[in-house]
Amino acid sequence: MTDPQRGNHPRHELDEVIHAPVRFSIVATLAAADKAEFAFVRDTVEVSDSVLSRQVATLEKAGYVAVTKGYVGKRPRTWLALTEDGRTAFTAHCQALRAIAGDTG
Question: Where on the phi/psi map is residue 24: left (φ > 0), alpha (ψ -120 to 50), or beta?
Fold first, then answer.
């Protein structure tokens, strides 16, 4: 049932957390894998460590990204993964974008 206060336009289905361009890029990158190393996501999205850290913190707070720290040999590593809620939100967000663009397929 549609909320009469929100209207029917598909833009109302966009996820404000995911919609920011860098966060959208991070989530899209993570959607393609079970998990990804921090440096891989940083390089793929073409942002600095600090920008990625801030955006990942926002996604983690929303429950969309899980952060795991560990070691490979003696080197510290950070892995990022979409949570189930993150995958669901990303799918819904992409569906809303397609609806706005006129592609319901």
Answer: alpha
